[in-house]
Every structure is written in structure tokens, then in C-alpha cells.
Amino acid sequence: MAKTSSVEKNKRRRNLTARYAAKRAALKAIVMDQSRPLEERFRAQLKLSAMPRNGAKIRIRNRCEVTGRPRAYYRKLGMSRVALRELGNSGAVPGLVKSSW
């Protein structure tokens, strides 16, 4: 099980990202637009850098919903391979059968 503080920190990052997504997108569009004057683009870049870092989508870490494990994460299922195997062995995941040969 991952540390509770790590899981909570990631939840705060998700909330900040959702809150600032529209504003960040607008500022990034201004910064990337080559047709705008350089001063306006620079002001937009300063505003963007003044925003909270944890508001950036890249700072979110994919974590298992069951255990909080950050590695071996399956995006489609939202959990790690360890949790998937445990749930699969107990029969909690429909359609998943333990292989044997």
C-alpha cells in the first residue's frame, strides 16, 4: 500500500489541474501563436509561470485505485498489475481467468 500522503497529494494535483485547465489552455494558446506580438506572448508566459506548478496535467501520477501503487499501472483498468492479479484470483474481475498449463 502506498503512503496515504502520496495518494492525497496526487488527488490535490488532479483537483488543481481541473480548476486551472481552461486558463492554462488559453495562456498556452497565446504563447504558441506566432502571429501575436512578442510582448503579449511574453506577458502570457509570465502569467503561465506564475500559476501553481501542480496545476499542470503532466504532474499527475497514474496510481492504482485499489492500492495507490504508482508502477505497473494499466490505464484501461485503473489499477496495477498486483491488484489486478489479486482481484482476478478472487474472481472479482469479470472475464478474467487465471491461466494454467
List the helices and strands and how they pair.
Layout: H1 4-32, H2 38-50, E1 73-74, E2 79-80, H3 81-89
Helix pairs in contact: 1-2
Keywords: Ribonucleoprotein, Ribosomal protein, RNA-binding, rRNA-binding
InterPro entries: Ribosomal_uS14, Ribosomal_uS14_bac/plastid, Ribosomal_uS14_CS
Family: Belongs to the universal ribosomal protein uS14 family.
Structure description:
This protein is mostly helical and 101 residues long. The protein folds into two domains: 1-61; 62-94, 30s Ribosomal Protein S14, Chain N. Helices cover 50% and strands 4% of the residues. The protein is built from three helices and two strands. It has a two-stranded antiparallel sheet. Helix 1 runs antiparallel to helix 2. The longest helix is centred in the N-terminal third of the chain and has 29 residues, at 4-32. It is elongated. The chain starts with a helix and ends in a 12-residue tail after the last helix. The mean pLDDT is 93. Belongs to the universal ribosomal protein uS14 family. This is Small ribosomal subunit protein uS14.
Major sheet: arrangement of strands: 1-2
Q: What is the helix fraction of residues, given as a range?
A: 40-55%
Alpha-beta classification? mainly alpha
- How many domains? The number is 2
Largest sheet: 2 strands, antiparallel
Subunit structure: Part of the 30S ribosomal subunit. Contacts proteins S3 and S10.
InterPro entries: Ribosomal_uS14 (IPR001209), Ribosomal_uS14_bac/plastid (IPR023036), Ribosomal_uS14_CS (IPR018271)
Function: Binds 16S rRNA, required for the assembly of 30S particles and may also be responsible for determining the conformation of the 16S rRNA at the A site.
Family: Belongs to the universal ribosomal protein uS14 family.
